[in-house]
Amino acid sequence: MAETSPNKLARNYTLIGLFLFAAPSILLQLWTGIYQIFDTAIATNFNSTATLSAINIVYPAQAVVEAIAFLFSGGSAALLGKLLGEKKTTEANKTFTCVLLISTIIATVWGFAISFAGDQVWYFMGADAGLAPVCTTYWNVHRFFMPLYTIQLGFQMWLLTAGKPTHCMVITILGGLVTLGMDVVYQGTLGLGTTGAALGFGTGSAFAAIASAVVIFSKSSALHYDSPACPAKNVAESCKIGLADFIYSAATGFMTAIYNIQAMKYFGADGVAVAAIFLYVQFLFVGPFIGFGKGATPIISYQIGENNPKKIHGTYQKYRRLSAILIVVIAVLGIVMMKPILLVYGQVPGDPVYTLASQKWILFASCAGLVGINICIQNMLTAFNDTMMPLIISTLRSLVLPIALLLVLPMVMGGDGVWLALTVAEAFTAVVSLFFLKKGAQKYGYNTDEGVELPEEVLEAARAAAAEEM
């Protein structure tokens, strides 16, 4: 597989070896996508597409909770790691406890504030008279679990900071299985309908949140609970660091709302159900590429830290070939997986949702390979501690272009513009990504054995990133 070395990042990986090294990360990301599809498919099969549409319409409100969680956890994780490294353990634990409480309280207030707005908030997000009451039914239960959901998301970062990545992975997987199991119990066995869908989600979140909280309950844990009396500057610093994650999550919710509004405008309630299916399927397109990047790029970071141009070039060549293979495989699967996906959602030929989805599938699924180009290049550049080019790629493909094209393309093309928007956004971004790949080769020299003299800050950042993976 690879040259033997006590340090897994220092080995000389073959093409297959590099893929196998990244495989666990790929599988974990795939699990996340598969779990989300089955979670929503269960709601459709035991209830109706109205429940699926309602879950998708309320998602922007849930996305704000996710944004709050990432604002405090993503930002604080970096600060907590720094404080622990400086042996300021008490300050780290007080800061951790403080941001945990603040984020939970804000999420709780937000969940109930949405309920006070009544059905009108769902009309604003794309519901019609038939779907708005379903959305209200779902959210009236869902809101009670938003504090636990915030805790669950927060601990996905905090457990890593506490040096417990295995606990994090196991709890994430088990939380998904609990959600799916309770979905079947609440909706299939007990027949609780849309309320059962919300309870299933909430039970899984509660399990993950409580399990995570228990893991670091002991004072022997590197990160544990303490008095929440921490310096205000630490909370401010956490929010400053986590602001990008907050904006991304909130904007994703905004994009979803526009997608639902446009789908309802041109295709009615069936269009919103199709939009929901397409958005959840997109997780399957994105997951393998994110997993591959997370798994493979630490090796490149280590080699950058070694300042070894020959090894960097060799790994880059293998990374590029594997990326190309993965892009082709996912692009083909994106085309052929239409019928299996629709069957999972309980849709058969003749059903209105099946008919609409099958007619528009190719417009949406054409983005599968393009997604891979953008994410693989973004991850590659991130390994070199380049912040600007990956940020531009991420912002273009995730926020700016999808939102702009969802507004503009339907005015030009009619309803087809709704389903083409994400594909065109990825296509435009792919042009920029390929330009950045060429520019990065000139700047970082990863396309030659000789390489270039890398700035010291790039070398130091790469060493730090690689150290976290050892």
Describe the structure.
With 470 residues, the protein is mostly helical. 82% of the residues lie in helices and 0% in strands. The chain is built from 16 helices and no strands. It has helices at 15-46, 49-85, 89-116, 120-124, 132-142, 146-161, 165-189, 193-215, 232-306, 309-336, 338-344, 352-365, 367-383, 388-413, 416-444, 456-469. It is globular. Residues 1-6 have low confidence and may be disordered.
How would you summarize the topology of this molecule?
Blueprint lengths: L14 H32 L2 H37 L3 H28 L3 H5 L7 H11 L3 H16 L3 H25 L3 H23 L16 H75 L2 H28 L1 H7 L7 H14 L1 H17 L4 H26 L2 H29 L11 H14 L1
Radius of gyration: 23 Å
Helix content: over 70%
Number of helices: 16
Q: Given the helix and strand composition, which structural class is it?
A: mainly alpha
- How many runs of DSSP E, i.e. beta strands? 0
Percent strand: under 5%
N- to C-terminal distance: 19 Å
Shape: globular
SSE arrangement, N to C: HHHHHHHHHHHHHHHH
Give the overall average pLDDT. 87
Major sheet description? none
Poorly predicted ranges (pLDDT <50, ≥5 residues)?
1-6
Tag the structure with descriptive keywords.
470 residues, mainly alpha, 16 helices, disordered N terminus
Quick structural summary:
This protein has 16 helices and no strands. By secondary structure, it is mainly α. Mean pLDDT is 87; it is low at 1-6.
